[in-house]
Amino acid sequence: MILLIIIGMSLVTMLPRMIPAFIVDKLQFRDWVNRWLNAIPYAALGALIFPGIMTVRPDQPHIGLLGGLVAIVLAFLGVNIILVVMAAIATVYVLT
């Protein structure tokens, strides 16, 4: 009985994740929809990172913003991601 419950739960979890993967490949979207869909990962990443930037020092949010600004500038210049992260951390460390 427990095994059937586990199999049922895995199917209920797996099917909603697998079906779109097969359907999306067969659909043709307009260009503006594709641009919008391509922006979703960046928006999600920003939504995950921004609250952390603002709460590095809750009483001094400018410190986190400066660290984030350093990361943005270095990433825009094409610096290796490890160095971008290290520079942002170093900036926050020096300012605190």
UniProtKB/TrEMBL annotation:
InterPro entries: Brnchd-chn_aa_trnsp_AzlD. Keywords: Membrane, Transmembrane, Transmembrane helix. The keyword Transmembrane helix applies. The chain crosses the membrane at residues 37-56, 63-95. It comes from the Bacteria. Pfam families: AzlD. This is AzlD domain-containing protein. The lineage of its organism: Bacteria, Bacillati, Bacillota, Bacilli, Bacillales.
